[in-house]
Amino acid sequence: MMLCRFREALEDSQQAVRLDDCFMKGHLREGKCHLSLGNAMAASRCFQKVLELEPSNSQAQQEHKNATAVLEYERMAEFDFEKRDFRKVVYCMDKALGLASTCHRFKILKAECLALLGRYPEAQSVASDILRMDSTNGDALYVRGLCLYYEDCIDKAVQFFVQALRMAPDHGKARLACRNAKALKAKKEEGNKVFKDRNFEAAYRLYSEALAIDPNNIKTNAKLYCNRGTVGAKLKKPDQAIEDCTSAIKLDDTYIKAYLRRAQCYMDIEQYEEAVRDYEKVYQTEKTKEHKHLLKTAQLELKKSKRKDYYKVLGVGKNATEDEIKKAYRKRALMHHPDRHSAATPEVQKEEEKKFKEVGEAFTVLSDPKKKTRYDCGHDLEDDSNNMGDFNANNIFKTFFGGPAGGFSFESNQNQAPGNLFFQFG
């Protein structure tokens, strides 16, 4: 017992009480060996036997209490494991190991729960300690494999699961984990293959099937969500892609690739504040030139988005040609010209006049190459637009259409209801 060789000590103490059933010290030492090895029920029987021989034995009384406590910790741990309260199980096993220090069963349960909590180095350490003493321990091999499996080292994990099944063919957990690992690897690889072949619908389906295999595999599932988010972006479904990337980040908040993918999706749908937030997170984690450039670009687009969008005012794309800009101005200026709305309510007239000014302002900037370049680069154009008031908007309109002198006029149509207008070109 002093050498911590409790199994040998247990055999000796059992032999002692077989020779003399009334040997109180033999029963006491047998109980201690049972307790240290985690067999609290057998230990309790031994201590009860000592108390029958000597009811006032204080050592037996205390050891009996310890055995009862270990049984209670076992019961609590079993209950909490079913509830998936793995932190509570680790707590119970630590308490139990304080009284049953060499119990491999308690150590394995603790290590398994540490793995399920994502505390892989601690779990590996406990399993490795057991394997140093017993290299054929199927439970310890299973836990080593479980840690590798949850760290997305699936090939190595399968090797440990196979070895565990070789040592313990009826190990149900190892068999299930091995099956899940192989299925997950195969489904993920199949999804990657069809994605490379640009069969995005099939890739989305395969990644979804892979995600259903094992909800507990956080790291692999984070990658699968990110992969599926990439597919969503390829399928022009940015909201779906953002949702998948968010799921990936919830599983692994250090997953840079998921932040980058989500940020790009936010850029695509012009949610620049969210994009800046994600790029800031990325740059704080990895201060590379590329990440700095992405952050600066998002910040510039955010700044630009807070100004008037002259392209939207004219209803053209950001790559519109000079002719497209002129045609758009012609259409919008005629649509919002105050004379066209002279019979409308004061509120409508005021709103249309405001839009008419914005159209003139937009055309002034986008039709001038220098102003357009500065605008596209995100520079403030307040100095350039100080004179873009009502007079300027009308001036632009007259210059563009030539005004009455150039053959353009608004006239009342006598055949229509009062207040209606039509445009007449010379």
Give structural notes.
The chain is mainly alpha-helical and 426 residues long. The chain contains 21 helices and 2 strands. It has a two-stranded antiparallel ribbon. The longest helix has 25 residues. The protein is elongated. 36% of the residues are buried.
Essential attributes:
single chain; 426 residues; mainly alpha; two-stranded antiparallel ribbon; 21 helices; disordered C terminus
Q: Would you summarize the structure shown here?
A:
The protein is an all-alpha fold.
Helical residues, percent? over 70%
Distance between the terminal alpha carbons, to the nearest Å?
115 Å
What does the overall shape look like?
Answer: elongated
Helix and strand composition category? mainly alpha
What is the residue-mean pLDDT, rounded to a whole number?
88
Query: Tally of extended strands?
Result: 2
Give the neighbour order of strands across the main sheet.
1-2
Low-confidence stretches: 384-391, 404-426
Mind describing the biggest β-sheet? Answer: 2 strands, antiparallel
Using only C-alpha atoms, the radius of gyration works out to 38 Å
Count of discrete alpha- or pi-helical segments spanning 4 or more residues: 21
Secondary-structure element order, N to C: HHHHHHHHHHHHHHHHHHHHHEE
Estimated share of beta-strand residues: under 5%
